[in-house]
Design brief:
- The chain is α/β, with parallel strands linked by helices.
- The chain has one domain: Rossmann fold (3-Layer(aba) Sandwich), CATH 3.40.50.
- About 50% of the residues lie in helices and about 15% in strands.
- It has nine helices and seven strands; from the N terminus they run E-E-E-H-E-H-H-H-E-H-H-E-H-H-E-H.
- It has a five-stranded parallel sheet with strand order 4-5-3-6-7, sandwiched between helices. A two-stranded antiparallel sheet has the order 1-2.
- Helix 4 runs antiparallel to helix 5 and helix 5 runs antiparallel to helix 6.
- The radius of gyration is 17 Å and the shape is globular.
- The N terminus is likely disordered.
- Bound molecules: adenosine-5'-diphosphate and the ligand Cc1cn([C@H]2C[C@H](O)[C@@H](COP(=O)(O)O)O2)c(=O)[nH]c1=O.
- Adenosine-5'-diphosphate (ADP) binds next to helix 1, helix 7 and helix 9.
């Protein structure tokens, strides 16, 4: 149930709960990290709705976007924005929520990349931007901590090829590099957009064993996000 607080729509009945966004490049290891934390009681894990982006009423906007970004970028990103918003306003089922990416990274990283690389027409960018601004002004999107899985583009490229998602087979290393640079400008150098919460940087080029060790080492910091 939504009500109004300080001019924004907020969810009712929520006490001191914390929301963590897990951010990082494509194939940086976000899902693997969420799988690890999903085994902890009191944490609710929300993965990205990628299956929806691959199948909306029998259509595949993710695949279409990779085939022809200029034509389908707006279609995909409108749907990403909607499905991410849907995740953000979902009532919390546990005191701690870990969520894969956010409506912010969809806009600040992926929409920005399409526009900056000349693959999104100005009018599409303007419409998406106005939608985004309206949403963040009028709907409460809580976040207490951003965990950034920091990888080299080369690592992600290797992992992407290994994962072998059909739609992503056309992705070149340069695309991963652009996404990397946008993330670094946003979360590390603070050069592009407002960062809505403190950032915990986790180096994520390591093998799985070391990553699991690192998740464990950072568990307290993550779980105490709003203290
Ligand atoms: N630390 C790691 N070392 C090697 N491979 C990894 C590591 N973490 C994840 N992977 C593999 O890389 C691929 C992408 O990982 P995934 O967790 O799906 O990334 P994301 O959710 O960020 O796209 C998967 O095949 C996964 O098994
Ligand atoms: C948020 C967002 C994602 N995408 C694309 C990028 C990848 O191909 C998938 C997400 O997979 P990941 O392994 O979880 O990174 O979706 C996009 O094109 N636009 C977006 O806003």
């Amino acid at each position: 149930m939504l009500s109004s607080s300080q001019g924004k729509l907020v969810r009712n009945g929520e006490g001191k709960k914390s929301v963590i966004w897990l951010e990082g490049n494509i194939a940086s290891g976000k899902t693997t990290c969420l799988e690890y934390f999903s085994k902890t009681s009191d944490i609710e894990v929300l993965t990205e709705p990628v299956s929806k982006w691959r199948n909306v009423q029998g259509c595949n906007p993710l695949g279409l976007m990779y085939q022809d970004p200029s034509r389908w970028g707006l279609t995909l990103q409108t749907y990403v924005q909607l499905t991410m918003l849907d995740r953000h306003v979902l009532p919390m089922a546990s005191p701690i929520r870990m969520m894969e990416r956010s409506i912010y990274s969809a806009k600040y990283i992926f929409v920005e990349n399409l526009y900056k690389s000349g693959k999104m027409p100005e009018v599409d960018f303007a419409v998406l931007s106005e939608w985004f601004e309206w949403i963040v002004k009028n709907i409460a999107i809580p976040v207490d901590l951003i965990v950034y899985l920091q990888t080299s583009p080369q690592t992600c490229y290797e992992r992407l090829k290994q994962r072998c998602r059909e739609e992503e087979k056309v992705i070149p290393l340069e695309y991963i590099e652009s996404i990397h640079n946008l993330y670094e400008d946003w979360l590390i150098h603070h050069k592009s957009f407002e960062v809505p919460a403190p950032v915990l940087v986790m180096p994520a080029d390591h093998d799985l064993k070391k990553m699991l060790h690192q998740f464990e080492e950072n568990r307290e910091k993550i779980l105490m996000a709003n203290c």
